[in-house]
Structure formats: structure tokens, C-alpha cells
What does this fold into?
Amino acid sequence: MAIKIVQKKGVVLERNIKGDHCLFVLNNSTLKEFPYAKELDRKLKRTHKKMTVLLKEPITLELNDGRFISFIVADKNLSTFQRHTLIRKGTQPLLQENPDMLTIGLFGDDKLKEINARAAVYVSLLNSQALPSRKKEDSKKNIKSIELLGVEVKDQFEHETAVVIGNTLTRELTMLPPNELTPLIYRTKIKSFAKSYGWRHQEFDMTQLKKMGAGSFVAVGQGSEPQDAAIVHLTYKPKTINKTIAVIGKGICFDTGGHNLKPARYMHGMHEDMNGSAVSLGILLTATLLKLPIQIDCWLAIAQNHIGPKAYKQNDVVKSLNGISIEIMHTDAEGRMVLADTLTLASRLKPDMMMDFATLTGSMATALGDRYSGVLSNRPELSCLAVGAGSEAGERITAFPFDADYEEDLDSIIADIKQCTLEGGADHIHAARFLNRFIEKNVPWLHIDLSSSNRKGGLGAALSDVNGFGVSFGIQVLQKILAK
Ligand SMILES: [Zn+2]
It folds into this structure.
């Protein structure tokens, strides 16, 4: 990302502002002395609002000198999510004009200014990236430079920039139409990423998976023509390795539901069912750019869920890679089928920890809406760590129970386990209990069910509906594990 970030220490003065598009991040104690305070005051009086309104919503002024300024108040007590949301709303009208340069004025004490500078750089970079569009006219372009006034942060925002690059890759891939991202095209892209970023690249295609006995994955992959599904394994191996972590992603390039076909309303958008794999790639890319001292094995379960003579159906019984027989209950529960064998492969390398990302269940969305994602884990302390990481990253995660007695609901008369129940209920918990059966060597494991991968109008830092939720969170998890 070619972006110039210029920092100027000292008090923010009107004459020091170069650009026409500015965000002023004020705090409660600086609410009197700042450039354009009079103009803001006049606008507030005219609309019968008080300065404290800025705590909740930004106010944007279009000034006589042509400047466009958004004001927000962001104090220390805000959560990262709240801070990101305020900055997103404040910068939205500015970025809509596609400026080349964005000015960010910071107020308050040094500590607060740094917190707000980092958040503002992250949010504004994230929202000024061109995303896939097939419209004849799309004028969106990236900002070329950011001018920071009132602050001097030691590094050049390497962390924020790397997360933006990872998150943008996730959004780009997720937004591609399904005819532009079939499993084969996706695999080709991943191969070229591996070459660019120096990742070791390995593929298990359908022929190999059949031979290996990965019947759970194959059950889904066999329904598409061509049979281009595969499990892709990428490895990032830095010089210093303090931990080994596996990141696994569900990559269903299109989910029709299979023979238990989805109705049109629910099938629409199902090209985004590969979001979990895109989040995994985003984390891998960010970790590589940040040169984290962790070996990351990234496992992507890439397939489509189609109808057809070879597609799997209800009452089929298939055998997974680790020898467990599964009774098929509902062909739309394909995510757990492709993940099951992928988790087995990932766990066989015995990483210190593994985490998977998947747009897995409708019941998680019912439980949380699209503002939060859910986590389940075979280690309660890891769940806590994940909730903390989500809060720090501004990508909110909450934990769900993982008690063994939930698994009784998956008892099958004919096979070792049922794929799911037909009653629905706590399917997000059932899905996690199901997946747990395919993990070998008792590897500590986090399972993230991405109910917040798409929220209309944006969520937290991101303005786009597809928001790349999970990349910043995942990096935070890795850093917390490194710090332990
Ligand atoms: Zn499905």
C-alpha cells in the first residue's frame, strides 16, 4: 500500500492544515480551544445542540474556505469498538469525496492522542481502499497521504497498515461474484499469493482426498462439476519461531444448500460462504507483513455445495479421515463436513493452538444478530482470551457453552455421530461439538462462528457491508498468545 503518513507534533493550528478534508478528534478537556471552534459553536446553536452531542455523533462542517471538517469527541473510556465506530462515522462524509489527502487533528494528552491516532489511521485507511465493483463507472480511489497534526507516534503505523492490507484481501475475496471465484480460480489465486509472500504451498485435491479416506470433505466436493474442491495448506515459517499455530477457514465458494436447497432469499449472498477462508488468508498475510515469530499453518477447505446426481443427500453415511462415521441429516450443513477432515489434518501436525473461522450456522446469527461473532473452545481459558482479544481489536466476540452433554443430541442410530439435528435449536453449539470430534492429539482449539461478517452499512471500523471481521481479532489473539 503506497501511502504517505506525515506527522506534525505540537498544537493543531489552522494555518498548519494542508488538506481540505479533516477529522478533528477532540476530548472532553479540549472542548474550548481548537481551530474552527467558533464555526462549530455556531452550527451547534443553529441546530439546538450542545457540544456533548459529539460524544455520540460526529458533526461535519463545510466551511467558507472550502474545508470539510468532521468533529468527534473520543476519550480514554471508550471501547475500541466505540472509538472505531465514531471515527468511521466522522470520516465517512470526508472519504465520500475521494480526497487524495486526509488530515487528522488530535487533541488531549499524549497517550490519548496516540490511541486516537492509531485508531484514526486504521479506520481511514481501511475505508479508502478500492473494493471489487463491476459497475461501468466507479470512481473510488485510495487516499495517497494522511497528515497527522498534534501527535508524533514512533513507528510508521506498521501494525495498522498491515491489518488494513490483510483485511482488504479478505473483503476483496469475499466480495468477488461466484463466477469469478470458483474453487479452481480461488486455488490459482492462492497459489500466486503463496509465491508472492513466500508461503509453502500444498494442495490435497479430490483424487488425493478420496484416496486418503477424507469422506466428510469428499461428500460435499463430489456434488460439483468439475470436481475442483481441495484442501489447501499454506505455511508461513519465519526465522524465529516461538509458537506454532494453525488457522483454518471454511471456503465454500457458493452454497446452494445442496439437495436441501435454500430458498432464493437465503441463497442470495452465498458466494460469501468462503469468508472464513478469506479471514484466514487475511490473518496469514498480516502476520507475514508484521513478521510475527510464529509458524502459521493455514488450512483452507475450498469447495462448493451444489445439487446434482453425485451430490450427497440425507441419510447417506460417510466416513471421515479419522474414521468416524457421520449420518447426513441436512445437506446445507456442509461447512462442518468440509471442516471436519481439515481440522483432522491440521491437528495431526500438533500445533500449540488452532483456530478456525467459518460462516457456519444460522443459529449463531439468531443468537447474536450481525453485530457480534461467537466463539467456542475446548479450553475455557482460550475462550476468555478470545473475548479479550475481540474487545481490544474492536471486533466483538462472545463465548458460548461447550459442555459435553450437548453432544447427546447428535447420537445416531446408524452412525457414530449425526451431522446435525433437524430441530435446529442450539445448532452453533452442536456444530462445535461435532467439529471437536475430528480434532486429534487434544490440540487447544478456538472455533469462531462468523455471524458478523456482513452488516449492512458497516460495523465498527469498516464502512463496507462485507467488513473483514476476524482479521484484526485473529492478529490480536496471536499477539496475546505470544505474550503469554
Ligand atoms: Zn450451508
About this structure: The chain has 14 helices and 17 strands. The chain has two domains: 4-152, 162-483. The CA atoms of residues 168 and 434 lie 32 Å apart.
